[in-house]
Amino acid sequence: MKKKVAIIFGGYSSEFQISEKSAGVIYENIDRDLYEPYLVEISRKSWHVALKGGVVLPIDKNKFTFIDNDTEKSFDIAFITIHGTPGEDGKLQAYFDMLGLPYANSSVFSASLSFNKWACNSFLRAFGIATARAILIRKGDSPNPIEIADELGFPCFVKPNDGGSSFGITKVKTLMEMPDAIARAFEEGDEVVIESCIDGREITCGLYAKGAGIVTLPPTEIVTDNEYFDYSAKYEGKSNEITPADIPFTLQTELFNTSKNIYRRLGLKGLARVDYIVNEDGVPFLIEVNTNPGMSEESIVPQQIRANEQSMKEVLNHVLAQTFH
Fold first, then answer.
1. CA end-to-end span of the chain, whole Å?
2. What is the fold, at CATH topology level, of the domain defined by 112-130+198-324?
3. Helix, strand, coil percent values for the chain (each to nearest 5)
4. Contact present, 45 and 85 (Cβ < 8 Å)
5. Other beta carbons less than 10 A from residue 309's beta carbon
6. Range 3-105: architecture per CATH
7. Cβ–Cβ < 8 Å for 263, 272
8. Mean of pLDDT values over 292-321
9. What is the reported pTM?
10. What's the mean pLDDT in 18-45?
């Protein structure tokens, strides 16, 4: 019998529409010989499942089930494609753990740790992973721009500690810009990270577990005329994403090995993407780890899958197979 897969999208953050696009691609590419996919939307207003014919039915949050023709129906697997809270920060995973519903994503701990940029980078730094110098600010703190500048220098990046898709990020070049940048980042969350700027090439690596091993996908170099890889560069075509990246074999090997090390150290599961800046000395500095990477047609991981001469269906089969391991 085919397993029923709930492809869960939406969420409570600014990344709702991006999540919806990702869910659509996954829904279209799931192997219908093995699985029966359903689109489940989660928002602050409602949780509901969309059926064929435009029928929309509410989800019972107590059991994550729905009633169709007077029959209660449940799911066998959850596939979380929410970018941001509550899917990328571990909250939904904790809920599914309590219900006993398997999911094709990283665990509560892995998701919550990787979603917190400050905590994740601090954790990985202890294992020799290079990261930028950074300062954490919480709501209620009184940051001193002069002290921040003395420690990190200019330019520096001000970003939400738990956001994605470059919402709320500012490249700050002067003291005068700092207060507004911090305020903008706080609009996306309760914590803000300020990082030193590392000049270099931005390269990202997608990967996923297959059996007992980890598959690394061809890396992508991101080239943009914007100040950095911001929202317009990511989603409005204002960047050139080169896949596979034109980099030396030794650097590619280092990126692959580092990404696999990070995947194992964090105990990740399913698809992930690890972003780096490679400085002029060829040293990869970790930017962040994405446990629910974008999966829309224009997203990076689907580009890498195509460059690896794989189909999305094939990769999704491997990801879903890991759910029961």
1. 19
2. D-amino Acid Aminotransferase; Chain A, domain 1 (3.30.470)
3. 35, 30, 40
4. no
5. 8
6. 3-Layer(aba) Sandwich (3.40)
7. yes
8. 96
9. 0.89
10. 96
